[in-house]
Amino acid sequence: MTDLQVPVTRSSTAVKREADTTDDPQGKKQKVEVQVIEVKKPPVVFANPGFKADLRLNVFNQEFHVASIVLKLNSAFFRRFLDPLNEEDRNPASLLFQYEWYTKIDDDGKGWTLTRTKPEGENAGLSKFKGNPSFETRVFGKLLNALFSRGYQLLDCTELIKLAEFADYYCCLPIVSQSLYQAFYSSPGILETIGRSPCGMLKAAHRLRHKVLFKEAFIHVLGPWSKPRYTNLQDVDLYNMADTAHRSMKDDVLNIYQAILQVFSDPKRYGPEISKQIANVAIESRDASGRVCVPLYFRKIYDLSPKKQAAEDWLDKVLEPILAKKLVLDKTEYGSGEGRYRDFFLSVDVGPLPWDKNDIDW
Predict the structure, then answer these.
(1) Are 302 and 291 in contact (CB under 8 A)?
(2) How far apart are CA 147 and CA 174, in angstroms?
(3) Read out DSSP for 12-65?
(4) pLDDT, tens only, 220-257
(5) What is the pLDDT of residue 225?
(6) What share of the chain in percent tops pLDDT 70?
(7) Averaged pLDDT of the chain
């Protein structure tokens, strides 16, 4: 029997491990060396008609062949750093590419950057990266799609948050922000994940200055009503903005309680039945800990059918504003106090956005 020879390409990674086997006639375990070969991926090409791919980006184990002029047009980072300052360093990187950049892992292993200097070592230190190379590579590819005005899909909020980080670092926030409208249209699944990481999404929307996404994430960070998540915001300005909105909603809730109490305490005007209904609804709106879920409570009162029209008109008048749904990207049928939003008020008015809308580059 001859040994199988497996060629290893320059970017392939060989991982050796020892496995136990009992093929020995005497039943003794023998150590067998197993070699796992990572196959080199084909390059992904980004080029426009009339402009060839003259830049090779080595992002972990994935090559991107890119038309550098498009990067320079849409990214201040590449406009500034792609061409070396010294004339003697501007020689072509190879026969096929004018430029070639490589992945450089940060010293702590938590982050990475692109650099024109080729790292030393067999795998260029990529193995010390503590994150997910496949995830980083996939999202970086979507950044290039945005820069080349190509469509792309976002799987979930973690991809969008990472995309915003890349766009910020490579100084191409405006074009990536504009590309999100198409991405939302082709990625309906991501809209359902905004509520999973609302603080991260709000930060990403703020970076990208994306009005629709910012308003959507802002409403989510104010919930659930019993334990709002905006308290986890690290950005002081965003925290203060959310805290002000939450305090304003507390005033609205107090005013509604007073209006409900007026109906409850005036059976002569609104009918004796409505008082009993309101009391029963409060019991039905308790959670496992015995706490009344306020948005659900208000929704149940709104859905009541009082016998007296005066009671129905009054309750509709005071409850409709706070039960309004101002989410734009969320197309589900659920409103405030319903389904996944049983402990949410979705009627928050964001107010003035925290950036200058006249800026065209940031």
Answers:
(1) no
(2) 10
(3) --EEEEEEEE--STT---EEEEEEEEPPPPPPEEE-BTTB---EEEEETTEEEE
(4) 999 999 999 999 999 999 999 999 999 999 999 999 99
(5) 97
(6) 87
(7) 88
Q: Which amino acid is at 76?
A: A
Q: Which of 193, 139, 199 is nearest to 169 (CA)?
A: 139
Give the CA distances from residue 184 to residues 135, 189, 193, 204, in Å, rounded to whole numbers and listed in that order. Answer: 19, 9, 12, 15
Q: Tell how far CA 68 is from the center of its chain.
A: 28
Provide the b/e sequence for 120-140 (b: ≥16 CB within 10 Å): eeeebbbeebeeebeebbebb
Beta bridge partners of 19: 32
- Residue 132 neighbours by CB under 8 Å, 6+ apart: none
- pLDDT of 67-102, one tens digit each? 999 999 999 999 999 998 776 667 787 899 999 999
d(CA 158, CA 193): 9
User: Distance between alpha carbon 312 and the CA centroid of its chain, in Å?
Assistant: 41
